Amino acid sequence: MKYLLIISHCILNTASKVAMDEQELKEEYEKKDRLIHSIMENNIQMIQLPCPEFLLYGSRRWGHVKEQFMHPHYYEECRKMLLPILSQIEEYLRYPEEYQVLGVVSVEGSPSCGYHMTCSGKWGGELSVDADEIKKMQNTCETVNAPGVFMEVLEKEFMSRAMDVSIMSMEEAIERLS
Ligand code: SF4
Q1: Digit-coded pLDDT (tens) for 107-121
Q2: pTM for this structure?
Q3: Which member of 8, 26, 45, 146 has the greatest number of CB atoms within 10 A?
Q4: Number of domains observed in the structure of the chain
């Protein structure tokens, strides 16, 4: 039996993330390292999802909130870039005696790849306005219990194809593997 995990892109490639002080990502990176270690120890196979933000907005993008990605083009591009992944998963699901798809691993808090949590706020517009205005916008940003756009689309596609695949956080994946 081969066991497979579908992994959010930046768990395997942190170069795709929004440029920032990586100290702020310390906790996330520790989880990622524990997860990868566990994957290797348990001989789990991996399929890497594409990074929608890097593909659509590149390496020079700012950090966003979910609302900024909630537009038809982003939804549609997410759906399109998931199609080859969905076909691969579908094929593995056809042979349950040979392959077990353990699920998809999210990046909690991301406006795209969070599953239980995403970031939300009235963040948008021109960045050259005065500092007080920027502060006001920043203060509206919060973490909410909802999926990011990419995971929202993925879950919808799983449902419409009657594919029984769970989406889980890195912590949940580590627990599952242990
Ligand atoms: S969009 Fe997803 S894969 Fe890309 S950097 Fe953000 S969380 Fe990681």
Answers
A1: 999 999 999 999 999
A2: 0.96
A3: 8
A4: 1
